[in-house]
Design a protein that fits this description.
The protein has 84 residues and is mainly alpha-helical. It has a domain of 54 residues. Helices cover 49% and strands 7% of the residues. It is built from four helices and two strands, in the order ααααββ. A two-stranded parallel sheet has the order 1-2. Helix 3 crosses helix 4. The two termini are 24 Å apart.
Length: 84
């Protein structure tokens, strides 16, 4: 976020996320993520994110194309800048 949008927008985003819940990476999440990683051919880090969202009954919102079409994920395509 910082690299793409600058410090001010990154700090704004942190303010929005500050009331968020922090979830520990426990054995159950790690094992489930390993299965999901294999099943959906996702990187382990992406699988951990997905499994954690599911464990919290949360919708995962992302612009990461790796998650496109996965249940419980809301994918929104990145807007491309028109540099005409």
């Amino acid at each position: 976020m910082l690299q793409e949008f600058g410090e001010e927008r990154a700090l704004d985003a942190m303010g929005i996320m500050s009331p968020s819940t922090i979830v520990d990476l426990d054995r159950q999440i790690a094992v489930h993520a390993a299965h999901i990683s294999d099943e959906l051919n996702l990187a382990m880090a992406d699988s951990i994110i997905l499994v954690t969202a599911r464990a919290c009954d949360a919708t995962l919102w992302t612009q990461d194309e790796h998650f496109k079409g996965i249940e419980g994920v809301r994918y929104k395509e990145k807007k491309t800048e028109n540099k005409s």
